[in-house]
């Protein structure tokens, strides 16, 4: 097992490098950039995500200093930079690191990221690592509650559907689960706001934030209640579509095990149905379900909450990533990408190791990576 883990860890290095290289290359051709965003602000408007170069291509892809004569009419490579001092443009490029060639900036980024040095945000004047650390608890909170609730409901429901396969209960619960899966989470979130957050009907739940402004003044029980009060609608909106996959995965896994010969043998020995189901079938059937828990959790808090965080004004990683992309805050964008990719690779390894923990008969030592 140690050799398998080592091989997987070593393979993470070229995988991460490939992900970062492809993403970095794509950014070279992305329109707009931090330099042009600053220029737009100086001109009295902020083009944000709609920034465009007059000649195409992004600031990062340009890599060099400002074109001589940038202050002359039509000579600047930045749209809206006419009339600005070329030295000022060059200083902006140096401030953002765009005075170096693209290959040199990429190698410097790889060197810094290897020791988790992500630099500072372009527009927040804060350490990127500090920013991510501040937003992480919000996204982790959403992801943890979503995963726990979805597993707590999906596993018992999937088992019940497998036991009652083909019956009326199985049919109508399948319809409910599929309908819930088909409803987009952001649309359901808006419906919850309209109904329960003062949109048009009842003002029961708060609309913004994860806690109230007077959270620090509350007692321990009050803090727990206030937190659950705020988290209720966002988690409910995120969890609606999460039941389907786990429910049907659990059902199909149990059905597959129930039809095997060892189950028939156990029944012929006179064991009760509950003893057969939970003493013999459960462990084998739950192997594929439980092993996916790490991946489901990381997916939930890294990628499943962007729209929910935006709708409910929750300042988490999802909203930070979206805002950074819009504002061309490249240090935050690449740091998030690097951390997400690294976590994804680690979680894949953990999922494999979970198989061996649940079922020691599985041996990855003889398996080719």
From TrEMBL:
GO cellular component, one term: plasma membrane
InterPro entries xref list: MetI-like, MetI-like_sf
Pfam families named in the record: BPD_transp_1 (PF00528)
Transmembrane segments: 9-30, 142-163, 175-205, 227-249, 285-312, 332-351
Main location: membrane
Membrane-topology annotation of the record: Multi-pass membrane protein
Residue ranges annotated for the ABC transmembrane type-1 domain, each copy included: 136-351
Biological process terms in GO annotation: microcin transport; transmembrane transport
Localization (cell): Cell membrane
Keyword terms: Cell membrane, Membrane, Transmembrane, Transmembrane helix, Transport
Record-linked CDD domains: TM_PBP2 (cd06261)
Family: Belongs to the binding-protein-dependent transport system permease family.
Record-given protein name: Microcin ABC transporter permease
């Amino acid at each position: 097992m140690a050799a398998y883990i080592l091989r997987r860890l070593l393979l993470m290095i070229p995988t991460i490098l490939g992900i970062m290289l492809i993403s970095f290359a794509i950014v070279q051709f992305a329109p707009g950039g931090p330099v042009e965003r600053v220029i737009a602000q100086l001109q009295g408007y902020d083009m944000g995500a709609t920034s465009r170069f007059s000649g195409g291509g992004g600031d990062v892809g340009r890599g060099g200093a400002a074109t001589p004569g940038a202050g002359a009419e039509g000579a600047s490579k930045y749209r809206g930079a006419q009339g600005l001092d070329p030295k000022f443009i060059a200083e902006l490029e140096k401030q953002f690191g765009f005075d170096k060639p693209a290959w040199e900036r990429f190698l410097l980024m790889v060197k810094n990221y290897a020791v988790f040095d992500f630099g500072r945000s372009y527009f927040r004047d804060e350490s990127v690592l500090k920013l991510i650390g501040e937003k992480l608890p919000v996204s982790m909170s959403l992801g943890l509650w979503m995963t726990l609730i979805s597993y707590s409901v999906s596993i018992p429901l999937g088992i019940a559907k497998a036991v009652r396969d083909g019956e009326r209960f199985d049919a109508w619960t399948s319809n409910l689960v599929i309908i819930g899966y088909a409803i987009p989470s952001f649309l359901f979130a808006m419906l919850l706001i309209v109904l329960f957050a003062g949109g048009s009907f009842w003002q029961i739940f708060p609309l913004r934030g994860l806690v109230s402004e007077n959270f620090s003044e509350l007692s321990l029980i009050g803090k727990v209640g206030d937190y659950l009060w705020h988290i209720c609608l966002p988690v409910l909106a995120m969890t609606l579509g999460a039941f389907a996959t786990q429910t049907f995965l659990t059902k199909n896994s149990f059905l597959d095990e129930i039809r095997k010969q060892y189950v028939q043998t156990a029944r012929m020995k006179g064991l009760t149905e509950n003893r057969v189901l939970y003493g013999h079938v459960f462990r084998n059937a739950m192997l594929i379900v439980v092993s996916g828990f790490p991946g489901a959790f990381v997916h939930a808090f890294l990628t499943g909450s962007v729209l929910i965080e935006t709708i409910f004004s929750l300042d988490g990683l999802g909203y930070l990533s979206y805002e950074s992309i819009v504002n061309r805050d490249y240090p935050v964008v690449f740091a998030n990408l690097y951390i997400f990719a690294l976590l994804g690779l680690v979680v894949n390894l953990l999922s494999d190791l979970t198989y061996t923990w649940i079922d020691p008969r599985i041996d990855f030592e003889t398996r080719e990576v």
